[in-house]
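Repro:
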Amino acid sequence: MTVVKPLWEETRDLHRACEQHIVGGAMATGNPPRIWYAAWLRALFQIHNVIDLQAPSELLRSYQILEDMSCMDIMVGELRSANAYIKTLDNPKAIDGAIYVLTGAHLMGGEIMRRRLEDFPTKHLEWEDRKASIAVLQTYRTRNDITEEARACFQALLNIMDEILFLYPTLI
């Protein structure tokens, strides 16, 4: 008999890799270079423009990310790695995997990040009804049919962080 592990456990290695990435680590400290944060918001906006078309209303983030982007005085172009990932979001399971990863990040880790990112816009980490949003997220967290799709999202986030580092290396 095959034991099915919870989704969080099946993605733990990639989740940890995102947290340990130099860009992810800078975000976690609450003091990333502003250009990195602006590029990160841009990538999130690119992805959310696709997944928010299918996401439950409690989890929508495009508008809040756009608000955060407008508060930054730094303009960045689209990230190729985000565009490459968007092309894979062509079926409901792929979108659900992305919703699981990104909503989990925005809701759970985002609550801590919001407090650390004092000098940065964080509307995308604020929730009108956090309790209701967590309840909706739970419907994704308990699924065991989107493991590969969630792993693909984490890998895309790593690729995005690599691209940010490549585009803005002098800020290390």
